[in-house]
Amino acid sequence: MTKRDLCEIQIPLHNLDIIAGISGMLQPRLLTRQSLHRCECLHTLSRRLIHSYTTEILPPQDPGRATNEPLGVQSHPSYAPEEKNAAILRTYKPRTPGVRHLKRPINDHLYKGRPHLPLTFARKGQHIGGRNSHTGKITVRHRGGGAKRRIRVLDYHRMEPGKHLVERIEHDPGRSAHIALLSRTVGQTRSYSYIVAPHGMRAGEEVESFRQGIPDHLIRELGGTADAGMIAAKTAFRGNCMPLHMIPPGTIIYNVGLKKGGGAQLCRSAGTFATVVSKGEGGSKKAMYVDVKLKSGEVRRIHRDCCATIGTASNVNFNRRQLGKAGRKRWLGIRPTVRGVAMNASDHPHGGGRGKSKGNVHPVSIWGQLTKSGYKTRTKSNVNRYVVTPRPRSEGKKAKAKKKKKAD
What we know:
alpha+beta, 7 helices, 14% helix, ribonucleoprotein, transferase activity, Ribosomal_uL2_bac/org-type, mitochondrion
């Protein structure tokens, strides 16, 4: 039989419905609702987005009809670490000048389809171009344009208890880290939510939140004991969210909250993490706080009931990427940055004159504020009392000269 004979084969019409039904079974998709109404700004959208969960009603199962078995998911599947000499960035053959220097992190595990639409809304309004909503003036420079996006609504509180199944890992154009779509089925209701995915998480895993407390079945499994070490051995796994007082010292965490009962605020970008240094003991006020060391080197005192997630924020090689061309920067909504020396004297303090001269003045910003040589802009009276050890900062010329003089 030749290729021409195969192309001329006619399929009866009643068989096309069967083929369409089989193809629909082989490609399961999430049921989506209609997208949110069109809004003009984020202020009105925040009122309509009541919570970061969407639910759907599942049809009742017919006992006489065969159904697919659920995925065999382990509570904590083993994750093979990356090889020591494995490639972490993908390069391309320079067929065009734009891809000669292009480097991207290798993320072949990401979902290739569209996001879960009920958990997204369109990114529209004046704020996209760096302008405020009152006067329309530019308040943030170097922003504007870019590709169309939909903002993903993430669950930073993780208040819903129980096990959640990781449906897939997705790329979010609005952040550097990847996000994970979670699903939880209770009876005939299934709910979906997005979270910031930890490094190493894959589809099919199960995560759990312990912000509402330790579940009863876990207490019975431990024999009714409340030993912190035994509880941590059963709960402190990658992707699980829990209060800081339940996390043992030395654990790597991300998505750290700052307010009791609030959502995550620290360590949310790609590759960031914090470390639990120590926990206060006794009946004093220090027992209500936990010392957490951030990636910048700062040690901060945080309330023991604030939330944190075990692991490191995903896409750890994000800072090693190279865009390759200026146009890719414009696709991200970033406009060019012009040097002050290249401007006119009416546009910048460094502008004007002949050649690359800034008029024999100290380096200043466009508003005339000193920008280099260690110029301090923070008042000494405004001290954060929750900072135990401040992060190391760059020193000015005078401070460096004093240190050098003392050393000599």
